[in-house]
Amino acid sequence: MRFERREHRPVYLMVLTPVLAVIAALALSGILIAIAGAPVLDAYWRILIGAFGSRLSATETLTRATPLMLTGLAAAVAFRARLWNIGAEGQFYLGAIAVAAASSKLLGDLPAPVLIPTLLLVGAVAGMALILIPLWLRLRFSVDEVVTSLLLNFIALLFVSMLIDGVLKDPLAFGWPQSQSVSDHAMLPKLVARSRLHIGFAIAIALAIVVHLIQSRTVFGLQSRAAGLNPVGAVFAGVPLGRTLVKVACLSGGLAGLAGAIEVLGVKGYVTTDLSPGFGYAGIVVAMLANLNPLGVILAAIFTATMFVGADGMSRGLGIPTYIADVTVALSLLTMLIALFFTQYRIRR
Amino acid sequence: MTVLFDIIASVGLWGAVLRIATPLIFGTLGALLCERAGVLNLGIEGIMTFGAMIGWLSVYHGADLWTGLLIAAIAGGVFGLLHSGLTVTLGLSQHVAGLGVTLFASSFSYYVFRLIVPTAGTPPTIVPFQPIAIPGLSTLPFIGPAFFTQTAPTYLAILIALTLAYILFRTPLGLAIRMTGENPHAAEAQGVNPMKVRYGAVIAGSALMGMGGAFLTLSAFNSFFPTMVQGRGWICIALVVFASWRPGRALFGALLFAFFDAFQLRLQTAVDGVPYQIFLMTPYVLSIVALAVMARRARVPQALMQPYRRGER
């Protein structure tokens, strides 16, 4: 048995791939649910109901999808240029803490129409600043950015922990390490009344479209794709590789930082060290499920959010640990990788 | 200054160095073995987590400690099989496949753990490995209690480091592994099957990672809790570069690293006014610095991260 590269990839396969990957992942986690002694279909039905069964749960799912879209976009733009930014988790936290710091120490008095965009920008810039460290190490010392960006996640989280236990600590939080809250007028307006869904969701979708246009319609988009497909060839074709990577990194880190900023301004209003249940890492899965397509990220993020939000309700009902959502999401990354392989190769005897 | 001196002169510090180094030695050797054959194994963080969980769970359910360690190694090997299936047979991106393995292995560990131990709160404990005093050597002043009263897996880790160095550089098998990592086409021309070598190296390397994880729950602590691996796997990946892909230097790197870690832990309690998070950051910062210093100097296996397909360039 050997693998043979396909001459051309049928379009239907490209669409079918993520669907099949998700079905395979659900089937595999179904085995784990069955081993735990719960009815599998009932469990999945409860997940669906838990995520979309009521107006409240549906808005909650979309609220959860918002940061996932942004971290998913962050991974998608970076991976497309083969910049392995695994540091979205740290960039998320740095964006979040930058917003909390800026609003409570510096800019809190600005009027909302100026304040909110400024704070979002602050968050994005904080994320950019963090990713420039691994990028610099790669360009200057040829250090693989995967490990450095991963290690920076731990450093960033400890840095946040230090700030919310120190200068930014909320004195009214009963000694709990928590940052001071941003002022009420800095909070993002709601998208749906009497829910937690905020305009961050719309911003994330708009950004997915913008990123799609950048990648498909601009010179920078072409250069970043060329840098990923064939860096040596790209250099010969006149692509300034270093400069392109810096731009890609800023876009990627900015999106991840913005995710943190939006989560603070849209949902929590303050920063704790459990602000993110792994949004940065889940973003990698979201990007891969979308096959690095920015528009696909929207759907992949909603799928991932469905699993996470739905698993909470299912867990309460059936006693299956909520970690089943993490398992399914991780498995869907693996099944997606395998499925993608078979869009490129076919088996020959 | 006297504070620093007191810390360095304490037996406790040097005893802790070997204890902290042990999971890093296992993990670094495991990652090194995979990379010598040309496969980057970023599954390490998840594999260590799973090893920690399954080792603890086996002992908690009545297996003895060595069986627990063995089960962790076998489980690690199974994840190694998964990783080599993805990266060797299918030739997928080793970065993404490895992260996928890590995400899956760690979430799977948490799932199984929560299924067995449903309630949060204080996790149940086991009786871990007890320190073994090496006869004669352990009675030496200072050195004895620091280096020769460790638990059995620590001695095993050092033994494995020496064995791996011997295998890699003194046996035909080691030559085949290194050749596969440098130039799989040339290896194939010499009658070596690069696919088999890569499978073997990744499975064996992942087994070592699983044992490194199990050391945490079976010797260093006595219970399992999520996120307990705390980036040790990533630090191991950095240590491989620092060690320039040589087992002896990996041993030295892990010990050096553990020395700094043990030192900062004691400094935390000795120094007032500095937030403890600064100290906790040092292992990660050191790893990044080590990477930056060594990345250019180290000799990378030339075929690292390059999938091998017969007859394809």
TrEMBL record, chain A:
CDD domains found in the cross-reference section: TM_PBP1_transp_TpRbsC_like (cd06580)
Name of the protein in its database record: Simple sugar transport system permease protein
Main location: membrane
Species, as recorded: Rhizobium herbae
Membrane topology type: Multi-pass membrane protein
Transmembrane segments: 12-41, 114-137, 149-168, 197-214, 226-242, 248-267, 279-303, 323-343
Signal peptide: none
Keywords carried by this UniProt record: Cell membrane, Membrane, Sugar transport, Transmembrane, Transmembrane helix, Transport
Top-level lineage group: Bacteria
Compartments where located: Cell membrane
From TrEMBL, chain B:
CDD domains for this protein: TM_PBP1_transp_TpRbsC_like
Keywords: Cell membrane, Membrane, Sugar transport, Transmembrane, Transmembrane helix, Transport
Pfam families: BPD_transp_2
Highest taxon, organism lineage: Bacteria
InterPro entries named among the record's database cross-references: ABC_transp_permease (IPR001851)
Locations listed in the record: Cell membrane
Membrane spanning residue stretches: 12-32, 39-59, 65-84, 96-117, 129-148, 155-177, 197-221, 233-260, 276-295
Topology with respect to the bilayer: Multi-pass membrane protein
PANTHER family: ABC TRANSPORTER PERMEASE PROTEIN, SUGAR ABC TRANSPORTER INTEGRAL MEMBRANE PROTEIN-RELATED
Name assigned to this protein: Simple sugar transport system permease protein
Species assigned in the record: Rhizobium herbae
